[in-house]
Design goal:
Elements (H helix, E strand, L loop, with lengths): L4 H14 L4 E6 L5 E8 L2 E8 L6 E5 L11 H10 L3 E6 L6 E9 L5 E9 L6 E5 L5 E4 L35 H9 L5 H8 L5 H10 L13 H20 L5 E5 L2 E6 L11 E3 L3 H21 L1 H27 L3 H14 L9 E6 L4 E6 L6 H45 L3 H13 L19 E4 L5 E4 L3 H11 L5 E5 L7 E3 L8 H13 L9 E7 L20 E5 L7 E2 L2
Antiparallel strand pairs: 1-2, 2-3, 3-4, 5-6, 6-7, 7-8, 8-9, 10-11, 10-12, 13-14, 15-16, 15-21, 16-18, 17-18, 17-19, 19-20
């Protein structure tokens, strides 16, 4: 979700609850477009992180810190000169704009009391941090915007500061029901687009939530809404505005398969309760959400080269397998050539010289067949020719039968590595996958390099009944869990016929309840290529029934005694041990 005006309103409320009266004791500029203010307020020390990064502008309270450059940038030095030991008076937000204004009182060089403003604009690529005086003149900004960059508004020292117009959007906090209905109905576009396109501070997600609360399909044309539909939509809009004005925020993150996909400062009723996690403060939500998203993005970037290697090898191997299958189909006529040769040896003495075919009874099927002949050869020579073809195709079939099994095994191995890349949760998880690719010959080990130290560990869950469940993140961990960690009476789970993780439940010699079996099966479904499907077939058996085939790839097993169940891949209620 975008950092919209509702999120800003929630941040402003939280800052106003804790910072007014506090003094700025430290100002740092870790990056060219970031500030970190340390504030002593109400006997506590708080850190306010501000970023004007074009791709990820943010403002929230944090407990963390970031290293600063040895020499402070000019903007940081200016703020230290004016605002060091300054007292925060209040934090405001004009309307529902994506703007935070921090009002700060300080003593100037003459000892006179002055009031300045630090203005944070959370506006995507136009984000900025601007420092102004009492007369709203810009003293400086973290980004200078000249007339050559923007003909609409210059952000330079000495220029007057004003809020940029947001494409003639209306302020939702001052709108009434009549205006809302008139504005929305006048637009012949989908309802949710009409809502966020008409009012400042509303994101597409907020607009979809308003439609959902009003019982309206957000994708229908706004012009087609009936009076009753418009009334419900207006009521939902007004109720959300009242929550914002009253400060009734409930920060929450929406997860899909344990991956954060959306966040909001207000309840998102259009998502099921099991998909959401609530937070006590908007700052902790923002810190958590972006940390998790950054981790996922970083893992994707770090694993890109491994994915490319696996995908290239997989495509090449599948192509090889397809060619082998075509060759295998060609060998299917080998038995026909053998029968032709045998019939020629049996009945060939009846064939006239120069004949192009011979009709004979196939004593294997009691059917008459026609055997093609080369008229330049004798029946005996024709028979020898057919036997030669038969023997060649037989040798080809025997060789391909072995080769196709090897290639099938290689494809399954590469698909299992691909599945491991999909569930990698940290950079250390990629180390073991890279080592496996190196050991398998897909990556060349550089001369003199040693094996990288492995720090990755399997996922660890606690079932609802208190049983410990372990999930391998890759083939090496699968093998270690199954053959070194698990004991004979522990239970082993795996998605049937699909690349995925080995799941081990430590039974401790006890008879486990059905709920634990179901939860382990859900984990096996979730950590497989079938993740997200509603019905996944899971095989499970006691560990003592699982064997490793001779010469098998890492993590590959066989078992002949097992049970099966069909389960979904929802693990939202399971407790993971960090």
């Amino acid at each position: 979700m975008a950092f919209d005006g509702i999120t800003v309103a929630s941040v402003v409320k939280e800052l106003n609850d804790s910072l007014p009266g506090g003094r700025i004791c430290k100002i740092a500029q870790p990056e060219s477009d970031e500030l970190l203010l340390t504030i002593k307020a109400n006997g506590c020390q708080r850190r306010l992180f501000i970023s004007a990064d074009a791709s990820l502008p943010l403002i929230y309270l944090t407990s963390g810190t970031k290293p600063s450059p040895m020499t402070a940038p000019g903007f940081c030095m200016l703020l230290r000169k004016h605002l060091q030991n300054g007292r925060i008076l209040q934090i405001t937000q004009p309307g529902l704009e994506r703007i935070v204004e921090i009002h700060i009182e300080h003593l100037d060089e003459m000892g006179d009391l002055r009031t300045k403003k630090l203005i944070i604009e959370i506006m995507g690529k136009h984000s900025n941090i601007i420092f102004t005086d009492e007369e709203n003149l810009i003293i400086d900004s973290i980004k200078h915007i000249s007339g050559m960059v923007s003909s609409f508004r210059e952000v330079l020292p000495g220029r007057p500061y004003f809020i940029p117009q947001t494409r003639e959007k209306l302020d939702p906090l001052s709108s009434d029901a009549g205006e809302f209905c008139t504005v929305i109905r006048a637009k012949g576009i989908p309802v949710f687009k009409a809502v966020y396109g008409s009012y400042t501070g509303l994101s597409p997600l907020a607009a979809q939530e308003i439609c959902y609360r009003g019982g309206i399909d957000g994708d229908v044309s706004a012009a087609s809404l009936s009076d009753e539909d418009m009334h419900r939509l207006s009521e939902a809009f007004s109720a959300m505005v009242r929550d914002i004005q009253a400060g009734s925020f409930l920060p929450n993150i929406v997860y899909e398969r344990n991956i954060p996909v959306e966040f909001s400062a207000l309840p998102l009723t259009m998502y099921a309760a099991g998909e959401k996690k609530e937070y006590s403060s908007i700052s902790s939500l923002l810190e958590t959400y972006y940390a998790q998203r950054n981790t996922l993005t970083r893992i994707r970037q770090k694993s890109a080269d491994l994915r490319r290697i696996v995908q290239t090898a997989l495509e090449r191997t599948v192509k090889k397998y397809d060619l082998q299958l075509i060759q295998m189909r060609d060998t299917e006529k080998r038995e026909k050539y053998r029968i032709y040769g045998e019939l020629l040896n049996t009945y060939g003495y009846h064939v006239e010289s120069g004949a192009k075919s011979m009709k004979a009874l196939n004593y294997y099927t009691d059917e008459e067949i026609t055997v093609p002949l080369d008229p330049t050869l004798t029946p005996s020579e024709n028979a020898q020719k057919y036997f030669a073809r038969y023997n060649k195709l037989k040798r080809t079939y025997e060789a391909l039968s072995e080769l196709t099994l090897e290639v099938q095994s290689e494809i399954a191995h590469l698909e299992s590595i691909s599945a491991s890349l999909d569930i990698a949760a940290a950079e250390e998880d990629l180390v073991q996958i890279r080592e496996e690719l190196t050991e398998s010959g897909y990556i060349r080990r550089k001369g003199g390099t040693k094996k990288t130290k492995i720090t990755s560990r399997p996922f660890h869950y606690i079932s609802s009944d208190g049983y410990h469940i372990y999930v391998g993140k890759n083939n090496y961990q699968n093998e270690e869990l199954t053959f070194k960690f698990a004991s004979g009476n522990d239970w082993w789970f795996h998605a049937k016929g699909i690349p995925g993780s080995h799941v081990i439940v430590k039974s401790e010699g006890q008879e486990m309840p059905d709920r634990t079996f179901e939860e382990a099966a859900r984990l096996a479904a979730y950590y497989s290529k079938a993740r997200g499907q509603e019905r996944v077939e899971i095989d499970y058996t006691e560990k003592k029934n699982v064997k490793k085939p001779s010469g098998g790839k890492p993590g590959f097993v066989v078992y002949y005694t097992n049970y099966s169940m069909v389960m979904d891949s929802d693990i939202g209620k399971l407790q993971q041990v960090q």
